[in-house]
Specification:
The chain is α/β, with parallel strands linked by helices and 261 residues long. It is built from nine helices and seven strands; from the N terminus they run βαβαβααβαβαβαβαα. The protein has a seven-stranded parallel beta sheet, sandwiched between helices. Helix 1 (26-39) crosses helix 9 (243-259) and helix 6 (168-184) packs parallel to helix 7 (202-212).
Amino acid sequence: MRSGTGSGRRTVPVVATFSQRGGVGKTATAVNVALQLGSRGHRVGLVDLDFLSPGIGSFLGSWAPRSTLSLGDYLLGNCEIAETAYQPDLGAFAADLRVVPSWLRMETAHELLTRGYDIGLLTEAFGDLAEALELDLVLLDSHGGLNNETVAAMACADLLLVVGRANLYDLSTARQAAKLIGNFSRASRLLVLNMVPPILPPQRLAFLQSAYQCHHHVALPLCEDLPDTAGQLAVSIAHPDHRLTSAYRNLADHVGQQLLR
């Protein structure tokens, strides 16, 4: 566990998502895990660290931001981190979920690009957010690949959800991605395979688990019966009885058993 402001206080567990590239379902995984944990009464903070292509809001019922403030405003010193958090308009399902968006107004984006920001503020933010909102867990979703925000998330994490697919591209780059993770994170790792076909060659799974040094994995099935989910309401809410929702429920079980005992 990490201290939020250097005061030595313990913070709640931190979960971060990682993918070696975009488009593999990392953000959908973060949102659905947060919703599943929140539906069980755990107070979850979901933080969007993806300034390049923020996507969390698109899974929560609207493309429009529900907060007038964002993570960028906090990093520029314009507000406290808790002031950026909002509760999605999803009724009881998200009663214990608080979301910190990373969308940027034009002037905020310009200021961040020209001034930059202290990366240490991010690690402070996670602890401060947990304390102010009395959270049980903080879940971080950053951009695919490697950037400053991804490194900060990995460095703070107690558990890293390594999200990918069992295709040839991900197989060919897994060892290189695992080395990058090892440079920045000592967190436990859980392999999350997305869009898994009905028959998955066992050697592919074995290779990915070995490459990423993950003792456990969760398979999210390929669901051709679902429409394109890009920009749609999270499947946990839109299709609560679907087998993909069941898989997310299983993933949330793994997270809860490891961190929320």
